[in-house]
Design a protein that fits this description.
It comes from Candidatus Carbonibacillus altaicus. The chain has 13 helices and no strands. It is mostly helical.
C-alpha cells in the first residue's frame, strides 16, 4: 500500500478523496441520525441518480451539454430536491414526514425513466451506482475538497442552530431560530455530502457511510461532540482498511469500505455486550 501511494498518483487521489469523505459523511450523519432522518439520505441519493442519468442523457443528445460532468447535474438535482423537501414540509405541516417519501418516490421514478432514455446502464452510470474510487482524477479531487470544505465551514457556522433543531425543534423555533432556512441548509449539506461520496462508495451505498459510523459511535459516545468525533474516527478506519483490503484482495472498494463499517459496528455492539456481562 505504501509503495502504491508513493508511485501512483491515482492511489493518492483516491486515498485523499476517501479521507475527506470519511470526515464529511459522519459529520452530517450525526445530525441526520439524531434527527431520525436517516431515510433523507436515500431520498436525495435517488434524486442525485436521476440528475446523473439526466446528465448522461444530455451527453447523448448534445455535445455541448455533454461537456458538463453528470455529477454536477446530480448535485443540482439534489439541491433542488432539498428545496422541495422544505416546501413540502410547509404544505404538510402536520404530516411533515411525508415530504421525504414523496421526494424518494419521485427520484426513483424519474431515475428509472431517465436511465431508460439514456439506453440503460453504461460504464459511467455503473461507477456512480457502485462507486469507483480509483477513477478519481485531480479535477475530481478538487471538486470533492471544495464541497467538503463548504460542508465543514457551514456546519461550523450554523452549529448552534443545527444542534438546537436536532434536539428540540419546537424550542428552537420559539427561541427565534429560522427553522425553515436551517432545515433547507441541512438538506443542501446532505446533497453536497452525497456528491462528495458517490464516487467513493456509490449512490446505492452512500447512506451507509453516512449512518453506520454514527451507529457505532452512539454506543461509545457520551456527548454530541464526542459522537461526531467517534463517528469520524470509525469512518476513517473504514475507509483506510476498506481501501487496503480492496487493493490486496481485488474487491470492490465501495462495498469493502461499507463492510468494514459494518464489522466495526458489530465489534462495538459485541464489546458493549461483553461489558454488560462483566458488570453483571
Amino acid at each position: 500500500m505504501i509503495y502504491m501511494l508513493t508511485h501512483y498518483a491515482f492511489v493518492r487521489y483516491a486515498l485523499i478523496a476517501g479521507l475527506i469523505t470519511g470526515v464529511v459523511a459522519p459529520l452530517i450523519g450525526s445530525f441526520v441520525v439524531v434527527r431520525r432522518l436517516s431515510v433523507i439520505a436515500d431520498a436525495l441519493a435517488h434524486v442525485t441518480l436521476s440528475g446523473v442519468a439526466f446528465g448522461i442523457l444530455m451527453g447523448t443528445i448534445s455535445r455541448t451539454m455533454g461537456l458538463v460532468d453528470p455529477v454536477y447535474y446530480g448535485t443540482l438535482f439534489a439541491l433542488v430536491a432539498a428545496l422541495f423537501i422544505e416546501k413540502l414540509r410547509n404544505v404538510y405541516r402536520f404530516y411533515s414526514e411525508l415530504a421525504i417519501p414523496i421526494i424518494l418516490s419521485t427520484g426513483v421514478g424519474l431515475g428509472v425513466v431517465l436511465i431508460g432514455l439514456a439506453h440503460g446502464f453504461n460504464v459511467d452510470l455503473m461507477g456512480i451506482l457502485f462507486g469507483n474510487i480509483l477513477s478519481v482524477t485531480k479535477a475530481d479531487l478538487v471538486r470533492i475538497a471544495v464541497a467538503g470544505a463548504v460542508v465543514i465551514a457551514t456546519v461550523f457556522l450554523f452549529y448552534k442552530e443545527l444542534v438546537s433543531l436536532s434536539f428540540d425543534e419546537e424550542g428552537a423555533r420559539l427561541s427565534g431560530v429560522p427553522a425553515g432556512t436551517i432545515n433547507f441548509i441541512f438538506s443542501a449539506l446532505i446533497a453536497l455530502v452525497i456528491s462528495v461520496s458517490m464516487q467513493i462508495v456509490g449512490i446505492l451505498l452512500v447512506s451507509a457511510l453516512i449512518t453506520l459510523p454514527v451507529a457505532s459511535a452512539l454506543r461509545v459516545a457520551h456527548s454530541f461532540r464526542s459522537l461526531i468525533a467517534y463517528a469520524i474516527i470509525f469512518a476513517e478506519i473504514s475507509v483506510i482498511l476498506g481501501m487496503t483490503a480492496s487493493f490486496y484482495f481485488d474487491l470492490a472498494t465501495g462495498g469493502t469500505i461499507v463492510l468494514v463499517a459494518v464489522g466495526i459496528l458489530l465489534i462495538v455492539l459485541l464489546a458493549g455486550r461483553v461489558r454488560q456481562l462483566v458488570r453483571a
